[in-house]
Design brief:
The complex is a heterodimer of chains A (276) and B (63). Chain A has 276 residues and is α/β, with parallel strands linked by helices. Chain A contains three helices and 18 strands. Chain B is mainly α and 63 residues long. In chain B, helix 2 links the parallel strand 1 and strand 2. Classes of the chains: A alpha/beta (276), B mainly alpha (63).
């Protein structure tokens, strides 16, 4: 049995943990691997008047306040119009970390944008456990994603045309443009699949693409990545292109998070015309 | 545009975003960068039609 294993009632389950299928009563341990993607349960220690919501697994945005118990995931972020932060080298129950985005990414905040104010301070309660071994009560630290990313993933688009949206900066309107394109294509009888290739975990964008008419959608979080980097971005993009192309849509639309100057931009997107 | 063309070898087919919020921006992009420009919020259908045409997709006629 892992040290300090106990049950806690979680008030809000962040969207970054969606693949874990957490219930509101979660078994936690105080043996916490300080690694990106590990699901941790925290108590919110502060209140905020802006940037104070959390995207839940349902996609709803819930207001967060002092005393809330939240399940999120460790990750880093480098956002011009948000927070920058990193995963601590070690993490223990009782440590204070910050909520770095509204998808439930947790880490040590290094820098803030004044428009967003200070991030939520959160006391770490423990790592969420899941029990993958049938009939055994062996808890394993939960991690985000349905499956692990294969860094050597091959690109096979099966001839499906691909539209890539790259922006000069976050909040430039990439998702609005993606949704406008998807909506028009859908109205003109095309079947569109869509995904978000890079950025920091938040399902809002792909949910908007579904609302605009995308048949299927995907995000890098499904592959166990909380925040993309120039190392994993290309493999993520190849993987999602290949998986969605297997469903034979008429076109695939995908969005690259943040700006093209940032390291997120993968150099492996297909060299066909795309929308920028 | 320069980054996409020079660093990544990608030729964009259309520009959108805040720089296309009015006709001045659209004309600057079109003339100086040699690429089409459409605003996603005010000309969403035109933006979609432009991408459909650029890809040569067999879509039903625009309504």
């Amino acid at each position: 049995m892992l040290n300090g294993m106990r049950s806690v009632v979680v008030d809000k389950i962040a969207s970054v943990t969606q693949a874990c299928g957490l219930a509101h009563e979660v078994r936690i341990s105080t043996e916490i691997p300080a690694e990106e993607g590990v699901v941790v349960v925290v108590e919110v220690l502060s209140n905020k008047s802006t940037y104070n919501t959390l995207e839940l697994t349902s996609g709803r945005m819930a207001k967060v306040g002092k005393g809330d118990i939240v399940a999120g995931a460790l990750g880093h972020r480098k956002a011009l119009f948000g927070y920058s932060g990193h995963v601590p080298p070690a993490l223990q129950a009782g440590d204070v970390i910050q909520m770095l985005n509204i998808g439930g990414v947790l880490g040590i905040c290094d820098s803030i944008n004044p428009d967003k104010g200070r991030p939520f301070d959160c006391r770490v309660l423990g790592v969420a456990l899941h029990f993958p071994y049938l009939g055994e009560r062996i808890g394993v630290p939960a991690r985000v994603g349905h499956k692990r990313l294969d860094p050597e993933a091959k690109l096979e688009t099966r001839g499906v045309p691909v539209v890539a949206l790259a922006g000069t900066c976050m909040e430039a309107g990439k998702t609005a443009a993606a949704c406008a394109i998807i909506s028009r294509m859908r109205h003109r009888g095309l079947t569109i699949d869509a995904f978000k290739a890079t950025g920091v975990s938040l399902r809002r964008d792909i949910l908007a693409m579904e609302d605009a008419g995308a048949r299927r959608s995907a995000i890098f979080t499904d592959l166990g990545v909380v925040t993309t980097t120039k190392t994993n971005g290309p493999a993520l993009t190849r993987t999602m292109l290949t998986e969605l192309a297997a469903g034979k849509p008429d076109v695939i639309v995908f969005e690259l998070g943040d700006g093209i100057r940032v390291s997120f931009f993968p150099p492996t997107i297909p060299s066909r015309p795309g929308a920028a | 545009m320069k980054l996409l063309r020079d660093r990544f070898g990608i030729e964009p087919c259309v520009v959108t975003g805040p720089s296309t919020d009015n006709q001045v921006g659209v004309e600057i992009i079109t003339r100086q960068l040699g690429v089409a420009a459409c605003n996603a919020l005010s000309e969403g259908a035109a933006l979609g039609d432009h991408v459909i045409a650029a890809l040569g997709l067999h879509a039903t006629p625009a309504q």
